[in-house]
Amino acid sequence: MSKYNMYVEDVSVEAVFNKLGGIDGARRFLRGELVLSVPVRSWTAENGISRFSVTSDGATGPEWINWFDTNDYQLDDDAKTLLVSDKFRPTNGVTYQVCVLKGERYEDQKRITKEICADAQQLKLSEPPLELACLIRKMFTNERVQEMGLCWIVIMHKAVKLSGALRLLGVACCDGVGRLRTYYAYPADDWNCEFGFAFLASQVSS
Predict the structure, then answer these.
(1) How far apart are CA 167 and CA 158, in angstroms?
(2) For the segment 88-99, what is each residue's pLDDT rounded down to a tens digit?
(3) Predicted confidence (pLDDT) at residue 206 exceeds the cutoff of 80
(4) From the CB of residue 60, how many other CB atoms can be counted at a distance below 10 Å?
């Protein structure tokens, strides 16, 4: 028996059997009663840019904090401060066309805030609102963000000064815990290649 066949018999077949729900699920599949489908990916990716859309639902900052707490997401103190500040302006029924510029687009020495913003300007992208961080965090599990090849998505809104430092709101997905947190936002700050940077293309109200 070849090494490949041993792998199929010892690992893959058992995994498929379990995924179908054991003997009952396997029998239903063979009878045509169980239909398998490939999940539809909710974003597209090309040239180091992931694109997707999200639609606002009118949730206020305090309502988002409650939602995150209820769903076991962690927020740092500065993120909470931003959500309850007058900088957070909720909308309802606005569809945002999101472009996430992936860190892999840039050479290490070019992966700094001012270069990323210059790239976005050349692509005719615009600054997103603070609420985009909440909408992305709700839409994508950690696993889905990692499928994009990212561990973090920073929302490139107008930087806000907190505790004497400029900050950006973002999503963190790299340690098994869903987080909403803030990041420093100075022009010369450099970033890891597993960061993504969220801007807006056109947007329409539904």
Answers:
(1) 9
(2) 999 999 999 999
(3) no
(4) 14
**What are residue 89's phi and psi, to 5 degrees?**
-120, 100
Identify whether the C-beta of residue 178 lies closer than 8 Å to the C-beta of residue 191: no
Q: 């169980």: which residue's tokens?
A: 34
Confidence class of residue 16 from pLDDT cuts 50, 70 and 90?
Answer: low
User: Does the global pTM surpass 0.70?
Assistant: yes
**Residue-averaged pLDDT of the chain:** 87
DSSP the chain: --HHHHHIIIIIHHHHHHHTTHHHHHHHHHTT-S---PPPPS-EEETTEEEEEEEEE---HHHHHHHHHHTT-EE-HHHHHHHTSTT----EEEEEEEEEEEGGGS-GGG-BHHHHHHHHHHTT-BPPPTHHHHHHHHH--HHHHHHTT-SEEEE----EEETTEEEEEEEE-SSSS-EEEEEE--TT-B--TTEEEEEEEEEEE-
Q: Indicate left, alpha or beta for 72 from its phi (over 0: left) and psi (-120 to 50: alpha).
A: left
Structure tokens at 8: 């199929």
- Per domain, the residue ranges of the chain are 1-36, 44-205
Name 4's Cβ contacts closer than 8 Å, sequence gap at least 6: none
